């Protein structure tokens, strides 16, 4: 093979798009043949296997990326297995260069470093780019060194750091798409990755989401057209779809945060600023995990590793997971998650707080459940939000803040629209009782066919008692510090 005909690999990872895709852009504009690959690696050391909802999303996102690449004369070739072995095999087929956008988690960085070494040894040029964050973890740091542990100063510094690069458009068309060389590990057909569920539980996901770049752009357009002006207030209303629903698209890189910010910059106002800051949380968590790589499983405040969590019975855990706690807003959230692979942000806080404070369970149990069931399950955002709620995070909720599921429901879902949607057995209860059916007079319950303990569970714990128990345990723990 002549040097001119040897392909450059574009290695797609958490950046499954054509727009603002620096690695793809560089490869296509080089004029060389381009070989677009994705390696499904669940076996390399330290890689966290994807949860079921993320696997579903990835399947559709890869299909969409392949369709998109074909519009510029390319194709996506899929491989599976240990990344280093797949790349080594590909290099033996004659490769000119390798291009990718950087990742920030420890195991993934280790893999990327090993791949870069491999390429260097083989004389294959490597170029890497920034593609999935506004600022890389080492860009926004305190003047005194180290890293930010609190969001507000981090975001202030990030904003002062200046604008990010403007997003790039779609490159192409490709001079030539290289054929996928046959090596161990692939190419394989998408179905061979086995990402879709064997028994079909994904109807709700299919009805709710459109994975892929087009779906991401449509979600952004809808948000800018109809929601951004009222985002600051509507994002907390449970019965209103007031947020962007961009999180799984961002998680899989179907849209870049730079594209979102660029689209937002044409708007001014407190809602747009609030929304930009939410994207800042995403970068902040990515940076924290970069600087403290064990945060997915270990508390930021190490003393919490000694916290005497309660061991939940399988029945109690199942009641939380499947929305049978007897607290309507908690149950609505957990059922929303199970049905459509997402949960309203405020309800994520309420349900997480219920698990770690009302039930005194280890936050990692809840984190793992969310990891399996959320379409946006993110290696940094998920554990760090859990740690925030559990009180063991970098800048956590004060330990004495225990979300009251009744008051939260009454405040953020005053007409019960959210509960009625996901807990239909309570749909006919008057607003006054929708968040506390156990207080409803018996004639009201009879009228709406609710039999507590039969058609809907009685509360699995008493809020007031659970609160006192949690405060005692947390206070005693703090005294040992
Ligand atoms: P919007 O309100 O429209 O926000 C825009 C974007 O900002 C989001 O898409 C997301 O990328 C980012 N963002 C918003 N809030 C946060 C936050 N608190 N932390 C980090 N980034 C944020 N978010 C995930 O992306 N993946 C997770 O695995 C995840 N797990 C969570 C677990 C718990 C216990 C809690 C309390 C929150 C979690 N979040 C997670 C944060 C938040 O709930 C979601 O990002 C948000 O609900 C997604 O909806 P949206 O895209 O409509 O958000």
From TrEMBL:
Binds 1 FAD per subunit. Its EC number is 4.1.99.3. The keyword Flavoprotein applies. Its cofactor is (6R)-5,10-methylene-5,6,7,8-tetrahydrofolate; FAD. It catalyses: cyclobutadipyrimidine (in DNA) = 2 pyrimidine residues (in DNA). One of its GO terms (molecular function) is DNA binding. It is an enzyme of class 4 (lyase). FAD binds at residues 231, 243-247, 275, 376-378. Keywords: Chromophore, FAD, Flavoprotein. Residues 6-134 form the Photolyase/cryptochrome alpha/beta domain. GO terms for biological process: photoreactive repair. Belongs to the DNA photolyase family. This is Deoxyribodipyrimidine photo-lyase. It comes from Lichenifustis flavocetrariae.
């Amino acid at each position: 093979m002549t040097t001119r005909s040897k392909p450059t690999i574009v290695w797609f990872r958490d950046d499954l798009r054509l727009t603002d895709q620096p690695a793809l852009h560089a490869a296509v504009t080089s004029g060389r043949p381009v070989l677009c690959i994705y390696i499904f690696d669940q076996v390399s050391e330290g890689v966290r296997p994807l949860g079921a909802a993320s696997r579903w999303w990835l399947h559709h996102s890869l299909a969409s990326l392949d369709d998109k690449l074909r519009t510029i004369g390319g194709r996506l070739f899929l491989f599976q297995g240990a990344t280093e072995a797949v790349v080594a095999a590909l290099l033996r087929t004659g490769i000119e260069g390798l291009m990718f956008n950087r990742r920030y988690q420890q195991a993934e960085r280790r893999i990327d470093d090993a791949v870069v070494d491999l390429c260097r040894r083989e004389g294959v040029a490597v170029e890497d780019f920034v593609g999935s964050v506004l600022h890389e973890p080492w860009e926004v740091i305190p003047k005194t060194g180290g890293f930010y542990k609190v969001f507000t100063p981090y975001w202030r510094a990030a904003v002062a750091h200046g604008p990010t690069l403007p997003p790039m458009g779609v490159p192409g068309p490709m001079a030539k798409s290289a054929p996928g060389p046959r090596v161990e590990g692939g190419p394989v057909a998408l179905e061979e990755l086995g990402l879709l569920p064997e028994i079909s539980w994904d109807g709700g996901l299919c009805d709710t989401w459109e994975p892929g770049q087009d779906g991401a752009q449509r979600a952004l357009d809808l948000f800018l057209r109809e929601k951004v002006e009222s985002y600051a207030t509507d994002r907390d209303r449970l019965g209103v779809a007031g947020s962007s629903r961009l999180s799984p698209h961002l998680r899989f890189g179907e849209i870049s945060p730079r594209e979102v910010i660029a689209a937002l910059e044409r708007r001014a106002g407190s809602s747009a600023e609030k929304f930009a800051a939410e994207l800042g949380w995403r970068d902040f968590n990515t940076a924290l995990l970069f600087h403290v790589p064990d945060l997915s499983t270990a508390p930021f405040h190490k003393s919490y590793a000694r916290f005497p969590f309660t061991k939940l019975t399988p029945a109690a855990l199942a009641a939380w997971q499947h929305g049978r706690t007897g607290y309507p807003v908690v149950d609505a959230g957990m059922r929303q998650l199970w049905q459509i692979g997402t949960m309203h942000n405020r309800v994520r806080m309420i349900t997480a707080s219920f698990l770690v404070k009302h039930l005194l369970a280890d936050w990692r149990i809840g984190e793992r459940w969310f990891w399996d069931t959320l379409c946006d399950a993110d290696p940094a955002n998920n554990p760090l939000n859990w740690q925030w709620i559990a009180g063991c995070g970098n800048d956590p909720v004060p330990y004495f803040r225990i979300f009251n599921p009744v008051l939260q429901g009454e405040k953020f879902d005053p007409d019960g629209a959210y509960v009625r949607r996901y807990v239909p057995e309570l749909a006919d209860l008057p607003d006054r009782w929708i968040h506390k059916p156990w207080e409803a007079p018996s004639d009201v319950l009879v009228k709406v066919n609710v039999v507590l303990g039969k058609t809907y569970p009685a509360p699995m714990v008493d809020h007031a008692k659970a609160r006192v128990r949690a405060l005692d345990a947390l206070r005693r723990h703090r005294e040992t510090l």
